[in-house]
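Re: [help] complex structure
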Amino acid sequence: MERPLTQHIHPDGTTRTLREYVKTGGYRSLQRLSSGLAPKDLQRLVTDAGLRGRGGGGFLTGTKWSFVPMGADAQKPKYIVANGDEMEPGTFKDRVLMEGDPHGLVEGMILAGYAIDAEIGYIFLRGEYHLSAQRLTEAIAEAYAAGYLGKPLPGMGFRFDLHLHASAGRYICGEETALINALEGKRAVPRAKPPFPQTVGLWGKPTVVQNVETLYNIPHIVNQGSDWYHRLSRTQDGGTKIYGISGRVANPGWWELPLGTTAREVLERYAGGMADGVRFRGLLPGGISTAFMTEEHLDLPLDFSSIPPEVGRLGTATMIVLDDHTCPVRFVLNLEKFFARESCGWCTPCREGLPWVARILMSFEEGRATSEDLSLLKMHAKWLAPGHTFCGLAPGAMAPLQSALKYFHDDFERHISTEGCPWSKKSSQQRVLV
Amino acid sequence: MLSEIERRELEDAVKHYPDKRGATIDALLTIQRRRGWISDDTLLEIAQFLEITVEDVDSIATFYNLVFRKPVGRHVAFVCDSISCWIKGCEQVQEQIKTLYNADLGQTSPDGRLTVLPIACLGQCERAPALMIDQDVYGDVTPEKIEQIVEKYK
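Output below.
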């Protein structure tokens, strides 16, 4: 199986230096630019490859680029921003890439910059990723010293500069317009769209914000072509994907696999099944803003196009497993407390609604909930759905809640009828299992 | 007053942005690394350097959770309480820290050694539960391991 993104990453967790990176073909893609690959050609190549945004949105990268004004009349400078604000709970794939192979991101950003004629790039990195920061700082310095950054590429007028921005917390920074505000040194509150960042972005200039893993794919597409890239995948979406799994499974971890791999394969073949003594009940396929999947969905190809919208969406492809020793209500309470804490506070439904949801879930755990509370939860899932809030945070928060109300309805009912959490008496056992 | 070295660090930070304001978060984190937290006086010094109002700087400082507007201990322990760590027992980890160092979430141990804060997913889910002390990350933490981990942070 070909693993273009991760095959050279050291299993011992050490990083790859520039020398190592170049030895395995690193920065070779830049030579293709000088041999006549125009920005429009690069855009077309990536569109043909079927590369979709790996941050969870799944938007076609080539299409995203195509909205950027090009030519002599376009505003300058333009910016390319790597979204390395990996704070989606359960998600750790970008960290693996940035720590293990930082030059892959630098090369991907130079190419993405070239595709939209942007001469400046920023890596927006979450503040807690200190090891990534250290390794990216070293890689950027190496790339400057070697002339990949900071001076015109050989035989061309194109020159690219790259900066690292270490952030200071807050999940909302991952939303692309909030990220732009944060990068400008402001509060990370999302902006109204339109205008979209591709035309009015960072400091009012055309800007493309892309997930770290997405950018890692671009050098390989340039080197090997779009047909090769398509063949890596099992489905119509191109390429491989880093799938991860956490929770009470035998062997939590990450694996680079063809897009379209099923959750059952990841769980059983790679993660070795559930941990001893616990049984599978459900999983969130990609971070906590995705809907639960249960046994019946385990054989669905996991990509951006094959999951029916009524079931959910792939998100980041780093799964979190719910087992039978963990209370699903308390599981969802943990998620909603996270969202309530991380709301930026800008719009009322999110700021007020999410703490309300968390309080209601708490009442289930404390044995105070009535059937009215169950209806209130269902109503919130509607009130905070897409279209009622300023950005996607609260609608994302409703995906696991709404699906939990569907698949684990009996468990919610049991909390009401037994006036408390059926799992709480088991909690001492639970500790032993950990 | 900003020291010579602090001023130089801020000047370096500003170079990465087209205007000084862009460096506000960098400035807060840079000075915090030296002083531990951001006092009202520090806020004013940063505002003067960046040529923006002190209210502007405070609006940033109070928004981002890694900027401390209150004094913290000599070390800060960040306990990940997101879902994967919660499933694997982060509540027991936090309880043990509370028992050993007499500091609940948001508090500093009476000897000024350790401030304990909750933190959003540290991206260490495959080795949950995770704990970060200052800039060092620990995975597969159990209540039994806490004392040994914290030992090196005096």
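Strands of chain A lie at 79-84, 120-125, 161-166, 207-211, 240-246, 253-258, 280-284, 318-323.
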